[in-house]
Amino acid sequence: MPTMWEKRVFEEEYHEGVRKLDKAGAYADPYKALGVTVKKKPRAELAPDTSAVTEKENATMPNTWSSYLFGGQAGAAKTTPAPPPAAAKAAAPVPKAEKKAEAPTAPAAEAAPADAAIDCTSGNAAQGAALFKAKCATCHTSNDGGPNKSGPNLFGVMGRGSGQVAGFSYTPANKSSGITWDNESMFQFLTNPKKFIKGTNMAFPGFKKEQDRADVIAYLNTLR
Predict the structure, then answer these.
(1) How many CB atoms lie within 10 A of CB 65?
(2) Which residues pair with 1 in a beta bridge?
(3) Rounded mean pLDDT of the chain?
(4) Which residues contact 176 (CB under 8 A, 6 or more apart)?
(5) Residue 70 pLDDT > 60, yes or no?
(6) Which of 23, 58, 90, 179 qualifies as a FRET site for 128, CA 20 to 30 Å off?
(7) Average pLDDT over residues 139-165
(8) According to the model, what pLDDT value does residue 12 have?
(9) How far apart are the C-alpha atoms of 202 and 192, rounded to whole Å?
(10) What are the b/e assignments for 102-133, b being 16+ CB within 10 Å?
(11) How many CA atoms lie within 13 A of 100 on its CB side?
């Protein structure tokens, strides 16, 4: 058994040798760095070119020669090579999910006709009179016995057939339309006159707002 003093001397020599090797670099001759003369047979292969060795490479391999000579630096962590990746297990084929029987789609409910949602009796006659004066009075009169203008007199128009005012020159489309003016037919006509009676000469494009149409109809119903 070595004495404590001998152990201490060995450790100091060991650490001194490690410092010399680290200072000499990774590719230096360890025997030369430690001052050890060893007779070796000449090697056939060329020594590696140390001119390209950088300080960074030396720093990354501080224990190369110490490991070679001393079996690894004391206290250095041993690196265990990573185990080879396990072979991927063949995945078992996943059975395809059976398609669920699709429930029959209920037929979409048919949209109710526009006329069914219209309440033509909700108009305001006073508001309709103002709209008539602003939009219709240029072409139509509304008093009893009033003259025809570019459009016929509209007194008593509700409940009357289309194209029936005496003395006014109607288009064939108006005369042959067969329309009797009630709330629903007048509401549709005031939406888009040219679309409702194709061939009419009426230039007015119609009222966009439903409430405006209902108000005008309420006013026309007072002309009796």
Answers:
(1) 24
(2) none
(3) 75
(4) 163
(5) no
(6) 179
(7) 95
(8) 81
(9) 10
(10) eeeeeeeeeeeeeeeebebeebebebbbebbe
(11) 3
**Rounded Cα gap, residues 21 and 64, in angstroms:** 9
Structural Rg of the chain based on CA atoms: 55
C-alpha span between 216 and 129 (Å, rounded): 7
Return the amino acid letter for 121. T
For residue 108, give the amino acid letter: A
Kindly list the distances between the CA atom of residue 169 and the CA atoms of 153, 165, 176, 193, 199, in Å, as whole numbers in the listed order.
12, 9, 13, 17, 14
Confidence class for position 119, pLDDT limits 50, 70, 90: confident
Looking at residue 76, its pLDDT comes to 45
Question: Are the C-beta atoms of residues 139 and 169 closer than 8 Å to each other?
Answer: no
Bridge partner residues of 161 (DSSP): 180
Query: What global pTM score does this model have?
Result: 0.49
Quote the tokens at residue 86. 């396990």
